[in-house]
Structures are given as structure tokens and as C-alpha cells.
């Protein structure tokens, strides 16, 4: 089972097994709008995020301060199964609970097509490590 780890070599603690969430695609500008950390290596982000419904599904995650109004993205989340949700508000940043670095993702409130609202934890897959080399990490996430 593939797992996602804190990307910092000094930490490298396990954040979550990939199987605990659903993959979604967000527009690439979401990284900048939400101020999500990306690796220093020059590569094109794809917008892959892991959606986790319950904070208790994480092995090791922290939640930081509220997201300032100026970093509130609009738009939609497109699930790979075709479901669409509208982002209402981004509440908090997700950080590594061990080293307090990030942000690795966000907690946001969304509205589903049927009008129901829920909180989702969006974890940037590209901000994390799978514990292998960069090429191994890319293969593990596809």
C-alpha cells in the first residue's frame, strides 16, 4: 500500500496511506491561491490532491491557523468519478504534526451538487513524499 510522508528529510514521518482518501484534480492555480507548498524541484504541478473526509483517517497531521480572506480560492473541485463540489470557504491549513511545516493542504467547506455542505481535507499529493526517489514517487501516484 502506498503511503504519503512529510517531504522534509529531517522529518519524513508518515502522514497517511493513499488508500484512505479519494484523488481529485484541482486547477493548477490552486497551489498559489491556497498558498500550498510545492517541492523545490522544477516540475509542472498537476493539481492532484487527496480528499480525506475525516481528520482521524490521517496518521499524522496538524491543523494550523485560519486561512486569511485574501487566500480564499473560488471554484470547484472535480472528483475523478465526475462529482463536482463548489468551494465555499477554506478554513485551515494542513501541516505536518511532527515538524509543523507546510502547508501541505487545506480544510475547506464545500457544497455538493445536491446542496449538502461538508468539510473536506484536501492534501496536496505533490507536496508530499512516497519515501522513494522522485521517479519512484511519480510512478506510485499514477
TrEMBL record:
For whether the record's keyword set contains Ubl conjugation, the answer is no
User: What is the name attached to this protein's record?
Assistant: LAFE_0H12200g1_1
Q: Which UniProt keywords apply?
A: Guanine-nucleotide releasing factor, Protein transport, Transport
As given in the record, the signal peptide range reads: none
Organism from which the protein derives = Lachancea fermentati
Q: Which GO terms describe its cellular component?
A: cytosol; membrane
A GO MF label: zinc ion binding
Q: Kindly list the biological process annotations in GO that this record carries.
A: post-Golgi vesicle-mediated transport; protein transport; small GTPase-mediated signal transduction
Highest taxon above the source species = Eukaryota
Amino acid at each position: 500500500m502506498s503511503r504519503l510522508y512529510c517531504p522534509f528529510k529531517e522529518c519524513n514521518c508518515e502522514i497517511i496511506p493513499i488508500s484512505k482518501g479519494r484523488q481529485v484534480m484541482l486547477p493548477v492555480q490552486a497551489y498559489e491561491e491556497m498558498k500550498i507548498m510545492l517541492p523545490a524541484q522544477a516540475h509542472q504541478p498537476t493539481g492532484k490532491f487527496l480528499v480525506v473526509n475525516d481528520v482521524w483517517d490521517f496518521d499524522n497531521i496538524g491543523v494550523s491557523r485560519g486561512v486569511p480572506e485574501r487566500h480564499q480560492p473560488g471554484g470547484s473541485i472535480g472528483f475523478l468519478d465526475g462529482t463536482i463540489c463548489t468551494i465555499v470557504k477554506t478554513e485551515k491549513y494542513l501541516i505536518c504534526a511532527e515538524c509543523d511545516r507546510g502547508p501541505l493542504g487545506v480544510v475547506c467547506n464545500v457544497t455538493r451538487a445536491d446542496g449538502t455542505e461538508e468539510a473536506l481535507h484536501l492534501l496536496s499529493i505533490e507536496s508530499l513524499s512516497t519515501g522513494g526517489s522522485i521517479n519512484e514517487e511519480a510512478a506510485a501516484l499514477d
